[in-house]
Amino acid sequence: EKKRPFFFFFGLNQAALAIYLIGAHYVKAYSDPYLWLSLGDDLLHGRSIGRWAPLYPAFLACCLKLVGRTYIFWVNTPFLILLTSLVYRLTLQVEAFVRRPGAINPDRTRLTGIVAAALFVVINRGYFLELQNPYREALAFCLLLAGVSSLLAFFIRGGPWRAAVAAVLAGLATGVRETCGLVLIPMALLFV
Questions:
Q1: What angle do CA 191, 88, 98 make, to 5 degrees?
Q2: At what angle do helices 55-71 and 36-44 cross, to 10 degrees?
Q3: 49 CB-side CA count, 13 A
Q4: What gap in Å lies between CA 65 and CA 72, rounded to an integer?
Q5: What are the start-end ranges of the H helices in 25-135?
């Protein structure tokens, strides 16, 4: 029963973000500077794309097929909302990872997670609007944070499948954005 107020405030945070993204969204003239939509379109028509990581153009190709060119600019919105959920979850996991099991105050931890997610949105609100356009960062960051979350869950609760999921998610993130591979080094150092 004590969890309800925290979930209410977290849900309120998520709803506020969704309303902000929907209300402030606009398609910019420079919305496809790296030609992601063109690369996705090339994949749909069987042309090769050799200069970038292939997963984001493949994702856009599927989305172009499903929603068309008009609504493609809303494709990253669920990932931006998921990003704040992952920040909340990571805050809870870092608290559990760093503190002794008996020293954790669940109410304070949840409140810290809500504040961290809210600050994440407030500090990055302009960047969130920018990422609503077809840029690969939103999907890459979601995959990467989910991988780090899975790795922390492995260290907290065990289970080798969690480490495997973390590796797969980090690999997918690297397939979306090449520089995400740099996070593999600190993730591997946690095992040392």
A1: 40
A2: 100
A3: 22
A4: 10
A5: 36-44, 55-71, 77-98, 106-123, 125-131
Q: How far apart are CA 153 and CA 183, in angstroms?
A: 17
Residue type for 54, please?
P
Tens of pLDDT, residue by residue over 64-91, are: 889 887 788 888 888 988 999 999 888 8
Note whether 117 and 88 are within 8 A (CB). yes
pLDDT, tens only, 140-191:
999 999 999 998 889 888 889 999 999 999 999 999 988 888 887 887 777 6
- Helix/strand/coil for 25: coil
In contact, 31 and 8? CB cutoff 8 Å: no
HSE, side-chain direction, 13 A CA sphere, residue 143: 25
Q: Are 178 and 169 in contact (CB under 8 A)?
A: no
State which H helix or E strand residue 35 sits in.
Answer: none
Q: How far apart are CA 110 and CA 169, in angstroms?
A: 25
- Which of 137, 142, 139, 143 lies closest to 170, judged by CA? 143
From the list 169, 184, 179, the residue with the least C-alpha distance to 136 is 179
- Measure the CA dihedral 61/62/66/71, to 10°: -50
